[in-house]
Amino acid sequence: MTKTLKTRSSRKRHSDAFKAEALQLAERVGIPAAATQLGVSTALLYGWRSKAELLKSRGEIDQGLAEENARLRRELAEKEQELAFLGKAAAYFAKGVK
Fold first, then answer.
1. d(CA 83, CA 98)
2. How many whole angstroms separate alpha carbon 78 and alpha carbon 84?
3. Which of 6, 14, 23, 35 has the smallest set of CB atoms within 10 Å of its CB?
4. Integer distance in angstroms from the first to the last C-alpha of the chain?
5. Would you tell me how many other CB atoms lie within 10 Å of the CB of residue 23?
6. What are the tens digits of pLDDT across the range 47-95?
7. Is 13 helix (H, G, I), strand (E, B) or coil?
8. Banded pLDDT at 7 (limits 50, 70, 90)
9. At a CB cut-off of 8 Å and minimum separation 6, what does 37 contact?
C-alpha cells in the first residue's frame, strides 16, 4: 500500500503596488473586465476594493480623532493657565483679608 502525498498548492501573493494598479484598472473598465485582463478572480478584486475602502475610512477617522485630540490639548492647556492665575489671585486677595 502506497501513500500519496498531497502537495499544497501555493497561493500567489500580489504586491501592494499590483493591487493598487488593479483597483485603478477596475475603476476604469469595471471589476469583471479587469479580473479577466489580469487573470485573477472577481472575488479577489472585490476583496481588495473592500479592504482599501476600509483602510481609507479608518485613516479619515484617525485624522479626525487626531484633530480633536489636538483641540482638546489646547483647551486643557488654556484651562490650566486660567486655574493657575485664579489660584495666584485667590492667594493675593486672601493675604489682604487677614
1. 23
2. 10
3. 6
4. 106
5. 18
6. 999 999 888 888 888 888 999 999 999 999 999 999 999 999 998 888 8
7. coil
8. low
9. 25, 29
